[in-house]
Amino acid sequence: MSLSPFHLAIPVHDLPAARRFYGEVFGLDEGRSDTKWVDFNFYGHQLVIHEHAKTADQEHARSNRIAALLKRATVPPRLSLSEAAGLLRQARAVFGVDTGLTHLAVALSKPTVGIYCATDPAATGLYGSARATNVGGKDRPPPLAAVISAWHHVQRDAQPVHSSA
């Protein structure tokens, strides 16, 4: 009996320990990886371990630590999709990684910079609006200067066009 290939995603709290376990104890070959996830070849199937906070409170605390390093960053409480859309409607700008929220910001016509590090923007990028742009790419995190340049681009395109009649 042949088993169809499958993908198994496992959340872990300690990525380095899990990487050692699956690589050294199970002897699985490591494939692609990023700072928060690792792919393994699980006998012809894909096994992915991904870092996950133990609790929502821990994830919120991590987000607050990151935001404390930034000027005017906001970490909202847990929101429904409609509440997130309401918050995005109030934003002057959105910077984000490859998530549904950046796509929602584009749908709401917000100036948006999509920051790509682990995925290919040609496949999942922000398109359909002059007020959105993508920087970086798979295994090519963008330098800060590229993010700032992209911001200036979407801000310029976000300005209303006035015609002299």
CATH architecture heading of the domain at 91-158: 3-Layer(aba) Sandwich
- Which superfamily, in CATH terms, is the homologous superfamily of the domain at 91-158? Glycogen Phosphorylase B
Rg over CA atoms = 20 Å
**Main sheet record:** 4 strands, mixed
How many H/I helices? 6
Number of E-type strands: 7
User: Beta-strand level of the residues, as a percent range?
Assistant: 15-25%
Order of helices and strands: EHEEEHHEHEHEH
* Helix share bin: 25-40%
Shape: globular
What's the rounded overall pLDDT mean?
86
Low-confidence stretches: 160-165
Q: Give the strand order of the largest sheet, numbering strands 1, 2, ... along the chain.
A: 1-4-3-2
Terminal Cα separation, in Å?
A: 75 Å
CATH class of the domain at 91-158: Alpha Beta
